[in-house]
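Reading is simple: each integer encodes one residue's backbone shape. An example follows:

___
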Amino acid sequence: MRMKNRELAGPIEWMPSTLINGIHSMRVQFTPGRPAALGREPDRAKKHALAANRDPAVYDDPDRLDISRVGAPAMQTFGAGMHYCLGANLARLELAEALAIMTRRMPNAHRTGPAPWKPLTGLSGPTTLPIEFDAVP
């Protein structure tokens, strides 16, 4: 996908990792040192996007949404390899279009009050987000 507006690349990559917190992926993993045996249930390991995207050893200040962040490793929200989300590029494209339209139609947008967050399970985000912006003629 070619991004029309390069300034949106940072926010588009990091917003899903900030807002999607409770997605689990089940993976099959065998215990090291224990031989695999036919007919035996494999050990299971879960990957939790909240933990994967918040590792301070991988991401500088991982809990801060920094729209100017560059050079960070890819986030884990959309999976990887053969388990990569088929809709990931569509989600990025939709987010890019929404941000471009919002910045045009809502200039000088700023928060005017607290923005309490929903619990960190599933899709997260503020329960309310009071904002003001300049009128567009």
Summary: The chain is about 25% helix and 10% strand. The two ends are 33 Å apart (CA to CA). The chain has one domain: 6-109.
